[in-house]
Design brief:
This protein is of the alpha/beta class and about 250 residues long. The protein is built from eight helices and seven strands. The protein has one domain: Rossmann fold (3-Layer(aba) Sandwich). It has a seven-stranded parallel beta sheet, with helices on both faces. Bound molecules: NADPH dihydro-nicotinamide-adenine-dinucleotide phosphate (NDP) and 2-hydroxyethylsulfonic acid (8X3).
Length: about 250
């Protein structure tokens, strides 16, 4: 039986790279994203290789998610994998300077959107059973604090704990859950974070040899193809160039 993967946020970065990687391996694809033109172009390209179903969707829109998933064509109905990838960070300003709307957007996308796709697709993953898997895109930001990470990092800490808790509830179903926790990766992520500022985007990656979306896709492909009796609980990746900074100390008092 052909395996099918449902990928949220396939119009760029990790999601697009995963779509290409799984298409190369002959998996059927359900691809989602808000940017219709990009999604259509990717679906048209990959449909030369494999079966593809595109859904123009905002993961924050629960009703739209419900009806799109309910209406999935029968040939895409049983899923072997869900890659909960759609997500974003907005800004790196310190908390007191942040816009509450940006915080809402991160919570609604990174937390609530991921919950909608997970809950709505669980029955289809359970129907597949042994060998199925959910890949959540966490982040090192969910593991370690850094200035300006506030809600973004907290949303990824939610994803980390939700992944662990989900595993407990899926015992006996054969469905696996993995939290992928990347560090610095080159993608439109930083363009979104810096509101389209190309100079800050370039400066983020300059000289750092960041992880590439293809590296993440290869990692996810490997995780989903480990033997069915193994669950990779979490996997944290950083470029070799990235390590931890020391604690910060305010010395303005002496
Ligand atoms: P990109 O910005 O390249 O891709 C993000 C994808 O998410 C796009 O396809 C975008 O599609 C989609 N998306 C964003 N908001 C929504 C929404 N409301 N509804 C549907 N789709 C949405 O970033 P990356 O590929 O780098 O990031 C993918 C994931 O990996 C994110 O969850 C991110 O937090 C996480 N991550 C990224 C790291 C990095 O350094 N790049 C490191 C660690 C984790 P569209 O705009 O068309 O909707
Ligand atoms: C993205 C990685 O370090 O910019 O999740 O938070 S980081």
């Amino acid at each position: 039986m052909t395996s099918t993967v449902f990928i949220t946020g396939a119009t760029s970065g990790f999601g697009e790279a995963c779509a290409r990687r799984f298409a190369d391996a002959g998996w059927s694809l359900v691809l989602t994203g808000r940017r219709e033109e990009r999604l259509n172009a990717l679906c048209a390209e990959l449909s030369k290789q494999t079966k593809v179903h595109g859904l123009v969707l905002d993961v924050r829109d629960r009703k739209a998610m419900e009806s799109a998933i309910e209406g999935l064509p029968a040939e895409f109905a049983t899923l072997r994998a869900l890659i909960n990838n759609a997500g974003l960070a907005l800004g790196v300003d310190p908390a007191p300077k942040c816009d509450l709307d940006d915080w809402d957007t991160m919570v609604d996308t990174n937390i609530k959107g991921l919950l909608y796709s997970t809950r709505l697709l669980l029955p289809r993953l359970i129907a597949h059973g042994r060998g199925a898997g959910i890949i959540n895109l966490g982040s090192i930001a969910g593991n370690y604090p850094y200035p300006g990470s506030h809600v973004y990092g907290a949303s990824k800490a939610f994803v980390k704990q939700f992944s662990l808790n989900l595993r407990c509830d899926l015992v006996g179903t054969g469905v696996r859950v993995t939290n992928i926790e990347p560090g610095l990766c080159e993608s439109e992520f930083s363009l979104v974070r810096f509101a389209g500022d190309k100079e800050r985007y370039d400066a983020t990656y300059a000289g750092a040899e960041p992880i590439q979306p293809q590296d993440i896709a290869e990692t996810i492909f490997w995780v989903l193809n480990t033997p069915a009796h193994i669950n990779i609980n979490s996997l944290e990746l950083m470029p070799v160039s990235q390590t931890w900074a020391g604690f910060s100390i305010d010395r303005s008092r002496g």
